[in-house]
Amino acid sequence: MKIATFNINGIKARVTALTDWLDEAQPDVVLCQEIKSVDEAFPREPFDERGYNVETHGQKGFNGVAILSKHPLEDVMRGLPGDETDEQARWIEATVVGEHDALRLCGLYLPNGNPAPGPKYDYKLAWMERLEARARALLAAEMPAMMAGDYNVIPQPEDVHDPKAWEDDALYLPQTRAAFHRVVNLGFTDAFRVRNAAPAQYTFWDYQANAWPRNKGIRIDHMLLSPQAADMLVDCRIDKEIRDRDKPSDHVPVWVELDL
DNA sequence: ATGACTTGAGCATCAAGA
Asked: Chain B bases under 7 Å from protein CB?
């Protein structure tokens, strides 16, 4: 089963770019971030036509996550547990059933956190604590699970074109990376890194200052696998070519092939 | 260089992104 994560930066502006990529890449499941739409306004038809079930967790203007799946989605859960007052739409979970096994899938859009320090950075760190708690619960269930999406975390120096330029940024601060590694170190596998050890493998390039042609990117979209899911990993790649097309998102898709 | 682009909201500009 081919499962992808893709921060699309606005579903209404990205329908053509997304459907073109779906038709080529033929993923079974796509976790989308930054749909920037309320649920009622999400354009379902292009995805219905292609055989995808659509589950959304949106809000007006910003954030918002969704799952597109050619397989049925069960037990859909919206919102990251741990703070009833949090109104930002950044988490969606569902179970997808494969040929041999079922997989618990979590699509996430982790807060950016800039400027740091400040209230936005406090929110990011608090959100990451809730993420760690959810990750522990998923591991305790001992079923295959994947948490994938836009983490807004640059894990290591080799994941950024110029580490020096990012050292005060909320995506790369030591506290941010430590919080990310605390989650990984519970027993998750960074699917891309176990399949590709090369530096400078990016998933985001800013629209500004010719970042893409200069390859001034960062790797912030990640797919973390529980031990049971890691045993199913066949491949993981970044579809960076589509950053070259008309009206691209500033992120590109990352996908895994799982023997599920 | 706190710049440059892009999106959504909503109709002139501004917030937010990373």
From this structure: 4-9, 16-18
Which tens digit of pLDDT belongs to each residue from A39-77? 999 999 999 999 999 999 999 999 999 999 999 999 999
Verify whether residue A150 is a known catalytic residue.
Answer: yes
Q: What is the pTM of this model?
A: 0.98
Catalytic, out of A52, A121, A150, A221: A150
Beta strands per DSSP E along A8-150: 29-33, 53-57, 65-69, 73-78, 91-97, 102-109, 145-150
- Please give the distance of CA A58 from its chain centroid, rounded to a whole number: 15
The residue that minimises its CA distance to C1' of B16 is A62
Interatomic CA distance for residues A149 and A89, integer angstroms? 13
**Distance, CA of A164 to C1' of B3, in Å:** 19
What chain A holds in terms of domains, given with CATH numbers, is: 2-258 (3.60.10.10)
Handedness of CA A165, A168, A171, A176 (dihedral sign): positive
Token output for A78 = 């919206």
Instruction: Express each pLDDT in A94-150 by its tens digit.
Output: 999 999 999 999 999 999 999 999 999 999 999 999 999 999 999 999 999 999 999
| A133, A137, A138, A141: CA torsion to nearest 10 | 170
